[in-house]
From TrEMBL:
Residues in PCI domain copies: 222-398
Protein name as catalogued: PCI domain-containing protein
InterPro entries: PCI_dom, PSMD12-CSN4-like_N, PSMD12/CSN4, RPN5_C, WH-like_DNA-bd_sf, WH_DNA-bd_sf
Gene source species: Diacronema lutheri
NAD among keywords: no
One GO cellular component term: proteasome regulatory particle, lid subcomplex
């Protein structure tokens, strides 16, 4: 049984006669009867009617009081509270008075605290409150409002709304310098959401934010992955300027990454891209790093500096993501030295330290320091005879390894002798028949 007649009569009493409190008192009696009878639809209907009367009468203080009163009544039904919150949430955006809007948001957030059945509404209210704080320049308060809201488990939000919410959390954490929390928040984004291409705008925003974090922590290989993902995004590929910029940054940060099997594999993959031919400098960089030949900073430094300078093609992008031209030049110098060191290790068994420093175009002290670090990291094997000033790249063999090599050599020799003898007998037989 509904309560339409009672609701309509009291609405007329409130709006026409101006007796708002009398109408509310009458409906509170009806609400009590329905609640104690366990009438879910009826209780919800009456509760929503009470808050609507307050809103229609423009009694915002009374509205806040009755929202709290109804939610705290003994054995109040969940559906009734949910109906009140959902209805009152609609009025937040329409309220032009900031003080009244904040009061309503505070009331609704207090009512929804700890209640799972209205957690979606609470999350949306928190986002609205955070935007108000941010608009007033209170970024720290905005971050505090959002940081404890867990939207990834909410079933009432679609993937777009969830992703947008998390991106707001990440952005505010970055804006306040809380990089660790920003990364924790960023990892909540399900990257599978981006696979169908329907969220390309959010994908671009996500990788822009993630790039700022990795720029701060100087994780070059993660930066490569981020720029590669941006380059593979359809929205970016449709814009030639943005696509070229993303490809250039992909190349730069891959070359700045520490040497590894994955890094080498990615360099050879990049080398096969047809688009790379449109950017000769970057194609040359990839070619130099994938060829076992020595080269120096002078071969590329001037052109690269022109690219990453504040007024260069990549200067604006680096400034946007928080990158540093100084970090790029220093790290590129280090990677060139390491590449040349690995090349020397492939072609030399022994070399004078002075000669190695000359080939690397660095001082002997820097060459020795970098060689020591590469040996410590396991990148190459080497031993330095400091009194003699000689570096040995040939790893001594264990007796068993040496015997195995000899055995293998003897086996290869015997196979060669047997094959030769077979060919001789074959030629002899053919000659005799002829």
């Amino acid at each position: 049984m509904g309560f339409e007649k009672e609701i309509e009569a009291n609405r007329d009493l409130a709006l026409r006669a101006g007796q708002v409190q009398d109408a509310i008192d009458a409906l509170l009696t009806v609400e009590r009867t329905a609640r104690l009878a366990g009438d879910i639809p009826g209780t919800t209907e009456v509760c929503v009617a009470i808050v609507k009367i307050c809103h229609d009468a423009n009694q915002w203080t009374l509205l806040n009081e009755n929202i709290q009163l109804l939610s705290k009544r003994r054995a109040q039904l969940k559906q009734a509270i949910q109906g009140i919150v959902q209805e009152a949430t609609k009025w937040v955006d329409e309220q032009p008075d900031k003080a009244k809007k904040l009061e309503l948001i505070t009331t609704l957030r207090t009512v929804t605290e700890g209640k799972l059945y209205v957690e979606v509404e609470r999350a949306r209210l928190s986002l609205t409150l955070a935007r108000i704080h941010e608009a007033e320049g209170q970024v720290e308060e905005a971050r505090n409002v959002l940081q404890d809201t867990q939207v990834e488990t909410l079933g009432g939000m679609d993937k777009r709304e969830k992703t947008e919410f998390v991106l707001q959390q990440v952005r505010l954490c970055l804006a306040t310098g809380d990089y660790m929390r920003a990364w924790i928040m960023a990892k909540k984004v399900n990257l599978k959401f981006f696979e169908d291409g329907s969220l390309d705008d959010l994908k671009v925003r996500y990788y822009h934010l993630v790039t700022q974090y990795h720029m701060h922590s100087k994780e070059t290989f993660e930066l490569f992955r981020a720029f590669q993902s941006l380059h593979d995004t359809k929205a970016i590929r449709d814009e030639p300027a943005l696509s070229g910029e993303a490809l250039k940054l992909t190349v730069v940060y891959l070359l700045l990454s520490a040497h590894s099997n994955e890094q080498v594999d990615q360099m050879h993959r990049l080398k096969q891209l047809k688009e790379l031919a449109e950017h000769p400098l970057y194609a040359r960089l990839v070619e130099l790093f994938t060829t076992d030949e020595i080269f120096t900073d002078a071969d590329v430094s001037d052109a690269l500096l022109a690219e990453i300078a504040p007024g260069g093609p990549l200067g604006k992008a680096l400034a946007q993501f928080g990158g540093s031209a100084e970090h790029i030049t220093q790290t590129m110098h280090l990677r060139v030295v390491q590449h040349n060191m690995r090349t020397l290790a492939k072609f030399y068994k022994r070399i004078k330290m002075a000669r190695m420093a000359t080939l690397l175009t660095v001082s002997e002290a820097e060459a020795e320091r970098e060689l020591s670090e590469m040996v410590s990291s396991g990148a190459i094997w080497a031993r330095i005879d400091r009194p003699a000033g000689v570096v040995s790249f040939q790893k001594p063999q264990q007796p068993n390894e040496l015997l195995n090599d000899w055995s293998g050599n003897i086996s290869s020799l015997l196979n060669l002798v047997e094959s030769t003898c077979h060919q001789i007998r074959k030629e002899t037989m053919v000659h005799n028949v002829a």
